[in-house]
Amino acid sequence: MSKPQSYPKKKVKEDHFLPTGMDDIFDNFRRDIENAFSPWRRSVWDLSFPRFSVEDEDLEIRLPLCDLVDKGNKYEISLEVPGIDKEKIKINAKKNSLMVSGEQTEKKEEKKENYIHNERSYKSFEREIPLPEEVIASKAEAEMKNGVLHVTIPKKEPKKLEDTEVTTVNIK
Q1: Which CATH number characterizes residue 135's domain?
Q2: Of 45, 63, 92, 138, which sits 20 to 30 A from 34 (CA to CA)?
Q3: How far apart are CA 49 and CA 45, in angstroms?
Q4: How far apart are CA 144 and CA 151, in angstroms?
Q5: C-alpha span between 96 and 157 (Å, rounded)
């Protein structure tokens, strides 16, 4: 019987550019991605987050970004709602909150000699913005400009904004 041939081990260069644990980082990353897309392999950490059903996984869930600015006598609220026409947005003002919702549907159809191409899309959102002070809901005003909804609501009891001294803080 012949002896199996042994090959000399390759020498690993000491000056290679990747740290020795780099392969482990990529393996861990791959494993995390696989686990994220495998509903039957879930960790205890995953159980603390809401899980959508398979039917809901294709839906895009997005709350419009919102800015709330206190101007002393009124609140100015800006919401980013690109792709939704102003006629499709509903605003309900209450004494302590603002509810904004909207939905937009689109349907495109292209017919050619050899094919028919159909596309449909649906976008919707609903967001309630709590207000720190009571407002006069009946005097709320809104305008839409470049996909941003601007709402102004006067306060019931206006307060003068105090000039505050700004101090620069250095980061250690």
Answers
A1: 2.60.40.790
A2: 63
A3: 8
A4: 9
A5: 13
Q: Are residues 28 and 104 in the same domain?
A: no
Is 102 buried (19+), middle (13-18) or exposed (0-12) by CB count in 10 A?
buried
Say how far apart CA 103 and CA 150 lie, in whole Å.
17
**pTM for this prediction:** 0.55
What is the distance between the alpha carbons of residues 19 and 28, in angstroms, rounded to a whole number?
15
Measure the CA–CA gap between 98 and 92, rounded to whole angstroms. 6
Beta-carbon count within 10 A of 84 CB:
19
Task: Please give the Cα distance from 74 to 113 (Å, whole number).
Answer: 59
The answer to whether residues 74 and 98 touch, using CB atoms and an 8 Å cutoff, is: no
Decide: 81 and 149 in contact? Cβ < 8 Å.
yes
Is 100 domain-assigned?
yes
Q: Distance between CA 50 and CA 91 in Å, rounded? A: 28
